[in-house]
Amino acid sequence: MSPSAAFEIAELADLTIDQLVAKFEVVHKEKCRSRNRNFIVRRIAWRIQANEEGGLSERALLRAGPIADESVIRVTPPKPKVGGDVVRTKMPPNWDPRIPPPGSFVERRYKGKIRRVLILTEGFEYEDQRFDSLSAIAKSITGNHMSGFRFFKLGEHA
Known about the structure:
4 strands, 2 domains, DUF2924 domain-containing protein, DUF2924, 6 helices
């Protein structure tokens, strides 16, 4: 590889993602559909080297054509199904939006141990015991009266 190509590839590390996308579109003459920095840098570097050194040989191109024709190629990932893979539970009326849906777990590491609470439609379950509130669970864990939402960091925008 020539020093000028090596320098051009090294300069890619200093570009912003928007500059990389613009460079990708100039070098590849197609719209960039990715915002993944490493992917874009690698594709641009490959194209710079291919332009300098001549790209794939005629023999490789002839061999790759039939292989590509036989394979099913997806350009974009499949659209997620409505609701995704998560089983959606009907939310009970007046459900507090800070609490995950029934069947979910909330976890918190406290004094080196993971504390895991199962959310039920009516209450909570912690260590095979039922509780009416997260605060009651927080008190049983810490020994102090405190907000269960604060203890389990629910409803915070962190």
